[in-house]
Task: structure prediction
Amino acid sequence: MKLLNTAAGNTKILKSQTGTEYRIASLSLMPDFKICPNSQNADCFTLCLKSSGRGQMNSVAKGRQNKTDYWHFDRAGFLAQLKKEIAAFEKLCAKQGKLAAFRLNTISDIPWEKYGIPQAFPNSKFYDYCKSANRLGKTPENYDLMFSFSDAPKYQRQVQRALQTNAPMAVVFRGFVPVGNYFMGREIIDGDLSDLKNLKAHSKIVGLKIKGNAATKNSTSPFIVDPGQATKCPFPAMADPLANSGRGFAIAAK
Result:
């Protein structure tokens, strides 16, 4: 069983690497509450992209589940194979005159720095979205993180911690992304263009348009933000990010 997708099968991966010096390999596991520990508090598990696109195919879903089972029941074997595949992709990229980049949490949230993965490959770039604010600013230099926002009440401690950093914050908007406006005091950019560009969007809101079927797009989950909650200028109270939770900012911005 191969772990990495090296053919840019994910649409965002393809868009991100096109026209750059990078080739990106990704890892797609079937998410659960162990490898996505904050998904319950963020109220995003039912809206997860696991069932979008190719994820609707039984063969793809089964393959992802097999990888997740491999991770849970043979951690050492999984990590050994992952390192071999990363090393092989690095060599392939070098032959092609490209730099290697990896997104290992395409639909999971595993702290790969705890397992020494980015540290073992210092010449490659690693990046992920994450919902664990305590990881922000603590990963190796070659591993960048973007925080994933949700307005769910139980998740606000994570949001508050993230606001104290300059990490890009990904926010899913319903309908359209209000580029150029502000949310929680941060300028909103179009995050659907390239993750590699998003990594440089320090202290910005990486706006993402909600994807999926009609049920997903019409969901009232606090994971999805209405564009009307954005403001034309930074919210003044943002000088003290602990003064309000993400929910407080959203209400004040209406």
User: Anything to note?
Assistant: DSSP finds nine helices and ten strands in the chain. Residues 4-252 form one domain. Strands lie at 4-5, 22-27, 99-103, 125-130, 143-148, 169-173, 182-183, 186-190, 205-209, 224-225. The radius of gyration is 18 Å.
